[in-house]
Amino acid sequence: MTREQLFAQIQQKRSFLCIGLDTDPAKIPAHLHSAADPVLEFNRQIIDATHDLCVAYKPNLAFYESLGPKGWETLAQTLDYIPEGLFTIADAKRGDIGNTSSMYAKAFFETLGCDAVTVAPYMGEDSVTPFLNFEGKWVIMLALTSNAGSLNFQMLELQNRELLFEKVIRTAQKWGSADQLMYVVGATQTTHLRKVRELAPDHFLLVPGIGAQGGDLEAVARFGMNRQCGLLVNASRSILYAGRGKDFAQQARAAAQQVQQQMAELLERHFSQA
Ligand SMILES: O=C(O)c1cc(=O)[nH]c(=O)n1[C@@H]1O[C@H](COP(=O)(O)O)[C@@H](O)[C@H]1O
């Protein structure tokens, strides 16, 4: 999917919501446990109930890999079920020496057919660039994450007073264009969004951390939106587990709709001022 196609979908749906398919068997409603594949059944019903409200789905690999070989099959079937035209992100946070990264890229882009994969930058350029060699596919690189541990390394001040996450973005700007590279910036990190936008004005940002982690969507939009929206904001638990009963899919839809309506207002405000 191209950047223009992604923006067109955002405009059409008045949404920049990404729903995280972080499906935990311990949290899915009891009545689904009699299904042949409860996780797949849960995902299907969530997708049916929400696909008109979001522009992307992001299954986190941990939730599927933890189920063994069957989990991989569930992930593949979930991805197949996502309607054409929605952006799919394998949240795998990979990155290794070059030939290994190439095989990871094949796994997510060719075998699973995802549009994007999350990648960790710690091993540097030759660990990230193999993911950038796939036409029409996207690398989403961790820059400033939503968790408390982001303080350990990402906020370290370098000799020139630049913070490490700023250096990561500044350096990666030379690796990939805004048509193939996005950055992860946590919704809990809005005080740094202005700086992120200074360094990467055109790149899309994947912003997890609203909902269960308490991030502020309004502030994300105020400091992070660019002329093509430039944001995919993820929520997982606050949507998936909005209800735990037989009506869980309707409850998930209601939670997604609430976020989408706020997004529609934020888009309206941003583009009427532009
Ligand atoms: O790469 C990510 O998606 C990610 C980066 C980050 O900084 N923080 C973060 O929470 N995530 C992921 O985003 C999702 C957040 O889930 P909820 O907190 O349930 O909305 C999880 O799949 C996390 O692994």
UniProtKB/TrEMBL annotation:
It comes from Catalinimonas alkaloidigena. Belongs to the OMP decarboxylase family. Type 2 subfamily. It catalyses: orotidine 5'-phosphate + H(+) = UMP + CO2. SMART domains: OMPdecase. GO terms for biological process: 'de novo' pyrimidine nucleobase biosynthetic process; 'de novo' UMP biosynthetic process. Pathway: Pyrimidine metabolism; UMP biosynthesis via de novo pathway; UMP from orotate: step 2/2. Residues 16-252 form the Orotidine 5'-phosphate decarboxylase domain. GO terms for molecular function: orotidine-5'-phosphate decarboxylase activity. InterPro entries: Aldolase_TIM, OMPdecase_type-2, OMPdeCOase_dom, RibuloseP-bd_barrel. Keywords: Decarboxylase, Lyase, Pyrimidine biosynthesis. Its EC number is 4.1.1.23. The keyword Ion transport does not apply. This is Orotidine-5'-phosphate decarboxylase. It comes from the Bacteria.
